[in-house]
Design goal:
InterPro entries: AAA+_ATPase, ABC_transporter-like_ATP-bd, P-loop_NTPase
Number of strands: 9
Strand content: 15-25%
Protein name: ABC-type multidrug transport system, ATPase component
Mean pLDDT: 88
Family: Belongs to the ABC transporter superfamily.
Radius of gyration: 19 Å
Largest sheet: 6 strands, mixed
Number of domains: 2
Number of helices: 9
Organism: Actinobaculum suis
GO molecular function, one term: ATP binding
Amino acid sequence: MQIKIEGLAQGYGSKTVFSGVSMDVGPGITALIGENGAGKTTFLRTLITQLRPKAGRILYDDAVPGTARARRNLRERIGYLPQEYEADSRFTVEDILHYTAWMKGASSRADFDAILKLVDLSESRTTKYGKLSGGMKRRAAIASAGVTDPDLVVLDEPTVGLDPAQRIRFRALLDKIRDKTVIVSTHLIEDVVASADRVVVLSNHGVAFQGTPDELAARSVVAAAPGAPQLGKLEQIEQSFLQLIGESNV
């Protein structure tokens, strides 16, 4: 899916969360980063049509979903993982997938076997959600977001609560869906370095940066001390991010 965002603004009452946001997003992994309160979740909820823009517009494959039916049809093409996901503890993993597919009117075309294999839950399809480990619950949630083979995958802090090994497996999962348009909100810079094709930094009520991870790293003005090893890409991106949000001492 190709997405074009033009002059997007969002807020609650008299409070502006962000404004003047413009960007093009296509297939590949786009990482959305920003300090707490920068509006990442609000941006994602606007993108998936849960919230109506205060100003500006979003085109999905060159079309604005201007009617309730158009928005409903669009949502069938979107897989969304909220930051806080919970399911009925009595549901099995397969029950969750059936329910999600049914809600999207896609029960007939959902490929449960494929998505369970993708998230490595094939052997746990009959396990109740309440019996899953934290990492398995997150993978079940990701499976729910992807069960209808969506064109747009939106993941809000998908690695929250995962241990390092689980985060590595999650990044491997992202590689398998790189042909989709994937937008991932994260606060972990290592996820950006490992997975992202493109980075968007939200700060000060707007977009402070958009480009590749290499371009973000190149913005760093921090130099290694004489005789010390040069900063790695992760450290450069961290410093660039801090400079963009105004928290660097440099």
